């Protein structure tokens, strides 16, 4: 075999693998767009019952055909505080079982001789057209899923064709045989090979397909194939650990639990290697691909049934692996950090919206805390106290600018993915929400700066003017609280309450303005007092406009028939 022949084999194999991986992506994204919202809702309701978590993880992964997507989603849910670490471990166990569905699809449908133009892939591609060109948007993701399955089978056929012929290249068989001749050490070697290759390919399903094809073509013995499968189960954990690299402590622990679970499973499988091999060969004595698929299923089901009773111990181990940061308690509320979304690679687009939603909720809480500082400027007894409050407000304003930038960057990356129409609308809505939240932060700073200039110019308000400003301040605070509540559940917002709060603020502003103009005519106070006073109540009303914009942006489909 010369260099040109080797290069052609590599190119053919890489091209076939690219088709297979693209097919997996299309099929997974289609399924997630069809059921992404339901998947988030299901995972969000997981309780402390480990068996419900296992069943959920199995079902979700079997549906979306990607254990990596499930585990990354679980890490993000733990990171966002929507799922307990114990629940996450149970879901991850189930995800390992669910991923075996892909192996059975490949073993049952993806191996064997082609059947010409009437083959199953062509039939599936034809069926997909009815969904893709449907006028109903909800059916289009189904078409994407079906065409993804068709391409998956095509990819399997291409991979099979890319496998070298042993009769032409006996050196390949000799090389593999040489690696298989070290007994137990060969098994460990192939576990390492399986782990490394899965880390590189970033798809255990793709590596499983390659392993089955190598067995089907006689390139690999069943003993070494089983070792590769065990290594793939370790390698597949890399995706969740990459996603958790920039997650919080809970998210990191969920990813480490996935790694620990699979490593322990491999150790147990090595101990039971011989009896397990004898069992699967007694069921499939000649069909090696089916035997490998059965082992894959037994490995994950058996591992789950064994370790589900040791979830508390797994949690203790991962807590030691990822301890709480020493400076965790030193964090102050006005410091900047994203808590629920990562700065790392964006995972499956449809499944990032919940993390973004929680980050926006945190953004809103920061805004409320910033607003609560304003009365401190009026109550400050000396310059030191006033400057301390002013400094905190300025830091908060810088924080809101950076939070808007980071969340916008994240949502832009999510929006560039293959989102469903509902997902695209939600991303647009979130972008408008964070823009208005940042504008609220700017308005709070403007109010603080007017207070600062008033103090510097030794301008003093009467008790009546202060009472008026306290009144509109309280009204705006009420509007902020309503807005913050609306950000908790986008599907059940109190839009009427938001509009009622806005109307109250507008009416108050109108009364204050009319009274102010009358006071200027009567000379009750001078220009400096009047200018500062009118600037403040106008800024409060302007701030309230951004507040109502947030509630309106949550759901543009809501008709504004309750607004005057």
Topology at a glance:
Layout: H1 3-44, H2 50-64, H3 67-79, H4 85-98, H5 100-109, H6 120-132, H7 140-162, H8 170-179, H9 184-201, H10 204-216, H11 222-235, H12 238-243, H13 249-271, H14 273-283, H15 288-307, H16 311-321, H17 353-371, H18 374-379, H19 383-415, H20 421-456, H21 463-486, H22 495-522, H23 527-554
Helix pairs in contact: 1-2, 1-7, 2-4, 3-4, 3-13, 4-13, 4-15, 5-10, 5-15, 6-7, 9-11, 10-11, 10-15, 11-13, 11-15, 13-15, 13-16, 14-15, 17-19, 17-20, 17-21, 19-20, 20-23, 21-22, 21-23, 22-23
Q: Which of globular, elongated, flat, extended, rod-shaped describes the shape?
A: elongated
N/C terminus separation? 81 Å
Rg over CA atoms, rounded to whole Å, is: 30 Å
- Low-pLDDT sequence parts: 114-118, 327-332, 557-564
Q: Which structural class do you get from the secondary structure elements?
A: mainly alpha
What pattern of helices and strands is seen along the backbone?
HHHHHHHHHHHHHHHHHHHHHHH
Mean pLDDT: 81
What's the structural domain tally? 2
Number of strands: 0
Largest sheet: none
Number of helical runs? 23
Residue share in β-strands:
under 5%
Helix content: over 70%
């Amino acid at each position: 075999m010369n260099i040109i022949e080797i290069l052609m084999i590599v190119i053919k194999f890489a091209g076939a693998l690219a088709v297979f991986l693209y097919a997996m992506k299309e099929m997974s994204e289609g399924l997630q767009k069809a059921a992404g919202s339901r998947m988030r809702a299901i995972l969000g309701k997981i309780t402390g019952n480990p068996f419900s978590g296992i069943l959920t993880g199995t079902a979700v992964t079997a549906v979306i055909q990607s254990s990596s997507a499930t585990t990354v989603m679980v890490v993000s849910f733990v990171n966002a505080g929507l799922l307990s670490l114990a629940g996450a471990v149970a879901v991850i166990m189930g995800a390992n079982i669910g991923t075996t569905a892909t192996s059975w699809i490949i073993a049952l449908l993806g191996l064997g001789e082609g059947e010409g133009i009437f083959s199953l892939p062509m039939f599936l591609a034809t069926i997909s057209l009815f969904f893709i060109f449907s006028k109903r948007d909800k059916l289009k993701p189904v078409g994407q899923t079906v065409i993804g399955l068709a391409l998956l089978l095509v990819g399997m056929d291409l991979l099979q064709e890319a496998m070298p012929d042993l009769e032409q290249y006996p050196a390949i068989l000799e090389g593999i045989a040489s690696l298989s001749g070290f007994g137990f050490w060969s098994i460990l070697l192939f576990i390492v090979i399986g782990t490394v290759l899965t880390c590189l390919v970033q798809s255990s399903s793709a590596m499983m397909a390659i392993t089955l094809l190598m067995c089907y073509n006689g390139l690999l013995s069943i003993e070494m194939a089983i070792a590769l499968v065990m290594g793939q189960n370790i390698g597949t954990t890399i995706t969740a650990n990459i996603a958790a690299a920039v997650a919080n402590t809970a998210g990191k622990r969920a990813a480490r639990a996935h790694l620990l679970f699979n490593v322990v499973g491999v150790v147990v499988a090595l101990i039971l290697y011989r009896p397990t091999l004898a069992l699967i060969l007694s069921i499939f004595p000649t069909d090696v691909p089916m035997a490998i698929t059965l082992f894959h299923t037994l490995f994950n089901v058996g591992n789950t049934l064994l370790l589900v009773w040791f979830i508390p111990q797994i949690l203790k181990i991962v807590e030691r692996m990822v301890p709480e940061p020493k400076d965790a308690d030193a964090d102050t509320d006005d410091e900047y950090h994203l808590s629920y979304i990562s700065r790392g690679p964006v995972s499956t687009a449809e499944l990032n919206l919940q993390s973004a939603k929680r980050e926006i909720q945190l953004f809103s809480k920061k805004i409320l805390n910033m607003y609560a500082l304003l009365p401190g400027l009026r109550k400050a007894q000396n310059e030191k106290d006033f400057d301390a409050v002013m400094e905190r407000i300025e830091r908060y304003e810088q924080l809101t600018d950076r939070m808007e930038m980071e969340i916008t960057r994240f949502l832009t990356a999510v929006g560039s993915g293959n989102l469903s129409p509902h997902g695209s609308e939600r991303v647009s809505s979130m972008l408008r929400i964070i823009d208005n939240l940042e504008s609220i932060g700017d308005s709070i700073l403007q109010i603080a700066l007017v207070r600062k200039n008033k103090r510097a110019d030794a301008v003093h308000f009467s008790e009546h003017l202060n009472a008026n400003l306290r009144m509109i301040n309280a009204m705006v605070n009420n509007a902020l609280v309503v807005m913050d509540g609306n950000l908790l559940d986008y599907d059940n917002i109190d839009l009427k309450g938001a509009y009622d709060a806005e109307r109250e603020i507008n009416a108050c502003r109108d009364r204050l303005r009319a009274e102010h103009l009358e006071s200027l005519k009567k000379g009750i106070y001078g220009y400096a007092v009047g200018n500062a006073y009118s600037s403040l109540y106008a800024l409060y009303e302007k701030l309230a406009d951004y507040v109502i914009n947030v509630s309106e942006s949550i759901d543009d489909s809501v008709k504004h028939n309750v607004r005057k």
